[in-house]
């Protein structure tokens, strides 16, 4: 055969190398396209996840055991109505609230029925220092930060984890609070479960676990109760007994002074049952808005008795047990002309709140029980509401 010249051999080699380079280039291009495609899919899925989370809608759910009827929304884990029978078996809604979700979403509710956090109650000047770092919070109740800030746990949509029907119906909500949210450090996962544990009792279990930083946590349930019915005027005729020998007195800005004050012989003394209206005008300010030190209550199911409330006209009674160190007794001092369910107009003292909690401003008071929770630790706060007539 005819031998190829050196020129022909060189040309053949160049064509061979070009083919290899072409294949390699196509491979690189295909690999790049594949990588870009995967990244695009990942970004798309991530955006869809974020979008689906942000698009969680407020909904209304019902728990009903045949005797007690409770409606609750995943917006702020809010109890919107709770109906229990009176001495004649007649049902009445005994919590303040609205007929629809819209007023809650517009901020018309002064914390009606919700769970407040990351830290309930007031933090002085909206500041605290933890592990040498100073944190600044929104001043939503000047000059202090109240109930977690402008967008606390009461103003977010929680995920519905489980909704059970049956003899003991329950519903569980979940919320992930991000690092820096309303000024607080660290990511925190929070759950809250309402359960009708019997025909006359409702239990609330709140849990929170910090993921990566120590952070203060203090959750409270902020329902306004009127045992005569939500539309029955003020609660000054209700009687109350509080299982506390001490309160934490406050300054002119409703911040505890740090003192633990005995209640004996003062208008704050509810160690024995008495009418709310009997001493309310003797306390400074517009009414009761004070933290009671829960210390001497009887135990039930691992919880301590916090308070007993009775309404004379309906004979309805509410007993509350909890495992928190304190309870804010609040008499709706700042509710003024709020139009609620069925057109009812809620005014001053139209309800009362029994907010079991850690002590207000505990993050800035060394002698108060600590509200700081470490990463991996579990914060637990349970409440048991028992209804009866007598």
TrEMBL record:
Major enzyme class: isomerase
Family stated for the protein in its record: Belongs to the aldose epimerase family.
Catalytic-site annotation from UniProt: 222, 355
Protein name in UniProt: Putative Galactose mutarotase-like superfamily protein isoform 1
Binding-site list for beta-D-galactose: 121-122, 222-224, 289
Pathway(s) it belongs to: Carbohydrate metabolism; hexose metabolism
InterPro entries associated with the record: Aldose_1-epimerase, Aldose_1/G6P_1-epimerase, Gal_mutarotase_sf_dom, Galactose_mutarotase-like, GH-type_carb-bd
Species, as recorded: Davidia involucrata (Dove tree)
């Amino acid at each position: 055969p005819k031998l190829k010249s050196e020129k022909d051999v060189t040309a053949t080699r160049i064509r061979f190398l070009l083919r290899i380079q072409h294949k390699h280039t196509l491979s690189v291009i295909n690999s790049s396209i594949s990588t870009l495609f995967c990244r695009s899919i990942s970004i798309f899925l991530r955006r869809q996840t974020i979008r689906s989370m942000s698009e969680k809608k407020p909904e209304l759910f019902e728990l009903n055991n045949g005797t007690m009827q409770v409606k609750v929304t995943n917006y702020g884990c809010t109890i919107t109505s709770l109906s229990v029978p009176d001495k004649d078996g007649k049902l009445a809604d005994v919590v303040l609230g609205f007929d629809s979700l819209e007023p809650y979403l517009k901020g018309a509710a002064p914390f009606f029925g919700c769970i407040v956090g990351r830290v309930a109650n007031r933090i002085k000047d909206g500041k605290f220092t933890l592990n040498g770092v100073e944190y600044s919070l929104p001043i939503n109740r000047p000059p202090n930060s109240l109930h977690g800030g402008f967008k606390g746990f009461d103003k977010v949509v929680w995920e519905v984890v489980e909704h059970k029907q049956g003899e003991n119906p329950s519903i569980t909500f979940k919320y992930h609070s991000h690092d820096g949210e309303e000024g607080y450090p660290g990511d925190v996962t929070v759950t809250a479960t309402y359960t009708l544990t019997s025909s006359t009792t409702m239990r609330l279990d709140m849990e929170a676990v910090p993921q990566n930083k120590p952070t203060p946590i203090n959750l409270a349930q902020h329902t306004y109760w009127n045992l005569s019915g939500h539309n029955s005027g003020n609660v000054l005729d209700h009687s109350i007994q509080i299982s506390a020998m001490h309160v934490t007195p406050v300054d002119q800005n409703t911040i505890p002074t740090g003192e633990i004050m005995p209640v004996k012989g003062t208008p704050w003394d509810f160690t024995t049952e008495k009418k709310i209206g009997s001493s309310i005008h003797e306390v400074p300010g517009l009414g009761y808005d004070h933290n009671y030190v829960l210390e001497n209550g009887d135990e039930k199911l691992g919880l301590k008795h916090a308070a007993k409330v009775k309404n004379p006209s309906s004979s309805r009674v509410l007993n509350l047990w909890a495992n928190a160190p304190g309870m804010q007794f609040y008499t709706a001092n700042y509710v003024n002309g709020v139009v609620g369910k069925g057109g009812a107009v809620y005014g001053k003292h139209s309800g009362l709140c029994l907010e079991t909690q850690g002590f207000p401003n505990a993050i800035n008071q060394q002698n108060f029980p600590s509200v700081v929770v470490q990463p991996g630790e579990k914060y637990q706060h349970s409440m048991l509401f028992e209804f009866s007539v007598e």
